[in-house]
Amino acid sequence: MNNLTFAIKSWHLKLQGTFTGNMTGTEPFNFAITDDPEVINSLYLPDERAKKLLLETFHQVNRKKKSIVAKLYGYINEYPEIPQFKNRLASWYQLTGNREKAKEINLLT
């Protein structure tokens, strides 16, 4: 990639520039990457309990706690409209070295 400009603003990381790789000419792109859960929460409108569970499961997945797997399957059944629980489960499998299972879970999202 060429001509990338990175700027950190508040808690958001914004990436702006043009991609000139294998494409003919240049095509501009503009998107944002954030670690602010409220951005995603505003899309799926989880209730207060789901918000709390999302935060708790985030930390448990990153610590690779095996006990979180059964809980995540339960949360996926309870909140099928919230894809973050599936993402957490796929991340757990990826972090613990089971890439095939992570791919399988990703197909559900």
Shape: globular
Distance between the termini: 28 Å
Helix content: 40-55%
Rounded mean pLDDT score: 74
- β-strand amount: 15-25%
Describe the structure.
With 109 residues, this protein is of the alpha+beta class. The protein folds into two domains: 2-34, no CATH class; 37-106, no CATH class. The chain is built from five helices and three strands, in the order βββααααα. It has helices at residues 37-44, 48-62, 68-78, 84-95, 99-106; strands at 2-9, 12-19, 27-34. A three-stranded antiparallel beta sheet has the order 1-2-3, with no helix packed on it. A hairpin with a 2-residue loop joins strand 1 (2-9) and strand 2 (12-19). The longest helix is centred in the middle third of the chain and has 15 residues, at 48-62. The radius of gyration is 17 Å and the shape is globular.
Topology record:
Elements: E1 2-9, E2 12-19, E3 27-34, H1 37-44, H2 48-62, H3 68-78, H4 84-95, H5 99-106
Antiparallel strand pairs: 1-2, 2-3
Short summary:
The protein is α+β, with helices and mostly antiparallel strands. It contains 5 helices and 3 strands.
Notable traits:
109 residues; alpha+beta; 2 domains; 3 strands; three-stranded antiparallel beta sheet
